[in-house]
Design goal:
15 helices; disordered N terminus; two-stranded antiparallel sheet; 399 residues; Rossmann fold; 8-stranded mixed beta sheet; alpha/beta
Length: 399
C-alpha cells in the first residue's frame, strides 16, 4: 500500500469529522493503459473504472474463495477481476446489458468454438430491412443485414458460445477504425443517428461494407490472448449476477460478501441509456423496462436519498468485519464543486445514528491521483481539474 502523504487538506476543509478516518493521496496503481487481463477490454463502457482499482482492494481485503460483490455492475470489471484472483464474483445492475456483458466475459470460450459457430450461420439471408433508415448513417446495407441475422441467431440461443459472440459483436457496433462494423464514429458512446449524419458530413463519409464474421473473430482473438479460460470458468461457477434495483437487492442473501467494490453513478454525468442505445438494440433490451429504477439526476439531495437506501443494502449483504469500497468523484452541483466521498462519509455517519442495523464505519479515504489517459482527454477533462480525473474511494468496515 502507498504511504500516507501530506495533502495540505485540513479535516475541517475535507469534512472528515473523525481523526480515525485516514486520508491517503497517491498514485496507487499504474496510469498506463491495458495492463491487466485482455478480457477486461472487451467492451468500451462510459464512466467505468480501471481493473487495477478492484484488483488493489481484492488483494488487500480478501482471500481465494471469498465473495466479492459489485452492486453497480457496469461492464463487470470487479466481477471478472475477482474470478481472475480465484474469488467468487457477484454483481448486480438494474441494466440487463451489464449482466449480459459480465456473463460473457466471465464465461469465455475458445476461438475454435467461436469459429465453428460462426461458420454455421448464414448472415446473408433475407431479413426484414424496414428499419434500415434509422441505422443507415452507421452501416452499409449489407452490414446491417448481417447484423440482423447475427442478432437473430445468437438471440435464439443461451449457450456460452452465443453469449460470447453477442458480447463481441456489441463491442464492434460503432468505432473509429476498420475493425468496427460502422463507419467512423465514437467507440465509447452510441451517438444518435442525427449526430452520426453530422459526423459523416464533416468527414465526407459514406458507410462502406464491413463483413461481420471476420471482425468478430479478430476481436475475439485479441480479448482472449491472455488465456486462463479454464481458470476463469472454474471461478465463475460460483458467480451470481442479478438485475435488481440496488435499493432492494432481494436476489442477494444477507451477510455473504467479504468485500464490496463499486462505483455508483455520479449524479447526471453519464447517460447510460442514450450512450448505449445501439448496444441495447442489438441485445434486444427494452430500456423502458428498467429506466425508472435508474438514478440520473442533477440534484444532490435526490442522489443522497438514492445512495442512502443503496448503502443500507450494501450493509445488509456484507459479512461482519467485511469491507465496502465506494469509488466516487468530485462533481459540479449548483455551480459548486462537491466531493462525493465527503457525501458518502456523511451519509454513513447519519445512517449509523438513524438505523440500528447499519454498521458500516468510515475507515479510510484514498485518492488515486494520476495523469489523464487518452480516453479521458476525449471528453475534454483537464488533468487534476475535474472529478473524473481522480478515483476517490471511501473504505467502510462493517462492525
Amino acid at each position: 500500500m502507498a504511504s500516507k502523504v501530506d495533502t495540505g487538506i485540513s479535516d475541517a476543509q475535507y469534512l472528515v469529522p473523525s481523526a480515525d478516518i485516514r486520508l491517503t493521496v497517491d498514485e496507487l496503481w499504474t496510469a498506463r493503459q491495458r495492463q491487466m487481463h485482455s478480457l477486461h477490454y472487451a467492451v468500451s463502457y462510459r464512466a467505468s473504472f480501471k481493473p487495477e482499482l478492484p484488483d488493489f482492494f481484492i488483494r488487500r481485503y480478501t482471500s481465494p474463495g471469498d465473495v466479492v460483490l459489485d452492486p453497480f455492475l457496469g461492464r463487470g470489471t470487479t466481477v471478472l477481476q475477482a474470478n481472475l484472483l480465484g474469488r467468487a464474483g457477484w454483481g448486480n445492475d438494474v441494466n440487463p446489458l451489464s449482466v449480459l456483458i459480465t456473463h460473457a466475459k466471465t464465461h469465455p470460450v475458445s476461438i475454435d468454438k467461436i469459429q465453428s459457430r460462426l461458420d454455421g450461420m448464414n448472415l446473408g439471408a433475407n431479413v426484414d430491412m424496414s428499419n434500415y433508415a434509422t441505422f443507415c448513417p452507421f452501416y452499409h446495407e449489407d452490414t446491417y443485414r448481417e447484423l440482423l441475422n447475427l442478432r437473430s441467431s445468437v438471440g435464439a440461443q443461451a449457450t456460452d458460445v452465443d453469449r460470447f459472440i453477442e458480447m463481441v459483436a456489441i463491442s464492434r457496433l460503432h468505432g473509429h477504425s476498420k475493425g468496427f462494423f460502422s463507419t467512423y464514429s465514437f467507440p465509447q458512446i452510441s451517438v444518435s443517428p442525427q449526430a452520426q449524419e453530422r459526423i459523416n458530413r464533416s468527414r465526407r463519409n459514406t458507410p462502406d461494407y464491413r463483413a461481420v464474421k471476420p471482425r468478430i473473430l479478430a476481436k475475439a482473438r485479441k480479448i482472449l490472448q491472455d488465456g486462463q479460460i479454464d481458470a476463469i470458468r472454474k471461478a465463475s461457477a460460483s458467480n451470481l449476477l442479478t438485475c435488481d434495483d440496488v435499493r432492494n437487492m432481494d436476489s442477494i442473501p444477507s451477510g455473504v460478501a467479504k468485500l464490496i467494490v463499486t462505483s455508483p453513478p455520479f449524479l447526471d454525468k453519464a447517460d447510460y441509456l442514450q450512450d448505449n442505445w445501439l448496444e441495447l438494440w442489438f441485445a434486444g433490451i427494452d430500456s423502458m423496462s428498467f429506466s425508472q429504477d435508474m438514478i440520473r439526476t442533477p440534484n444532490l439531495e435526490t442522489w443522497k436519498t438514492f445512495m442512502n437506501r443503496a448503502m443500507l443494502e450494501m450493509n445488509r449483504t456484507l459479512v461482519s468485519n467485511g469491507t465496502c469500497v465506494i469509488e466516487v468523484g468530485d462533481v459540479s452541483s449548483r455551480g459548486e464543486t462537491v466531493n462525493l466521498d465527503e457525501v458518502i462519509v456523511a451519509l454513513a455517519l447519519e445512517l449509523d445514528r438513524s438505523h440500528p442495523e447499519f454498521a458500516l464505519v468510515p475507515e479510510e479515504i484514498l485518492i488515486n491521483q494520476q495523469e489523464f489517459t487518452k480516453l479521458a482527454n476525449c471528453f475534454g477533462v483537464d488533468n487534476n481539474a475535474k472529478g473524473t480525473n481522480t478515483n476517490r474511494m471511501v473504505v467502510l468496515r462493517k462492525r
